[in-house]
Amino acid sequence: MEVKTSEPRFSGFKDLQDMQHEVLTGKVIRCAMNVHNALGNGFQEVIYQRALEIEMQRANMIFAREMEMPIFYREIQIGTRRVDFFVENLIMVELKALAAIEKVHLAQAKNYLEAYKMQIGLLINFGATSLEFKRLYIRKSRKS
User: Fold this and answer.
1) Are 115 and 86 in contact (CB under 8 A)?
2) How many whole angstroms separate alpha carbon 85 and alpha carbon 49?
3) pLDDT in tens, 67-105
4) Which of 39, 72, 108, 136 is most buried, judged by most C-beta within 10 A?
């Protein structure tokens, strides 16, 4: 299984599903930009989460907030984790309110993607002076 991160790309879609992911992540990012433009940085993560929920509702997006998901190890449930948002049952969105995104935050978001068997996610940071975001992709390898 290959995991990679990417900055925005707006051309060269591989297929319809990739295009759908790009459109949806773009909508979430626009909503996040609206929140960051209105609130700036300096608030706790939950404030941005609530504001982003309002923005996504206004954009008529379908999503679940803080949906609890089981975590398994060797087919045994060992705990649960709540991801900030699942959008259209296709995209996982994890929020942060930190001075900067670090490698540990990317690793955490990638682990959630793998644990939830999602192909694409967004890591959005409201804590920096400018909004930061990373698109995260998981492509299943062709090896069986």
Assistant:
1) no
2) 9
3) 888 888 899 999 998 899 999 989 999 999 999 999 999
4) 136
Q: State the Cα–Cα distance between residues 116 and 33, nearest whole angstrom.
A: 26
pLDDT in tens, 24-44: 999 999 999 999 999 999 999
Q: Helix, strand, coil proportions of the chain in percent (round to 5)?
A: 35, 35, 30
Strands, E assignment, the chain: 2-6, 63-73, 76-87, 91-96, 120-125, 132-139
What are the residue ranges spanned by the domains of the chain? 15-139
* Options 3.90.320.10, 3.30.70.2740, 3.40.50.720, 3.20.190.10; CATH of 15-139: 3.90.320.10
Q: Return the bridge partners of 74, or none.
A: none
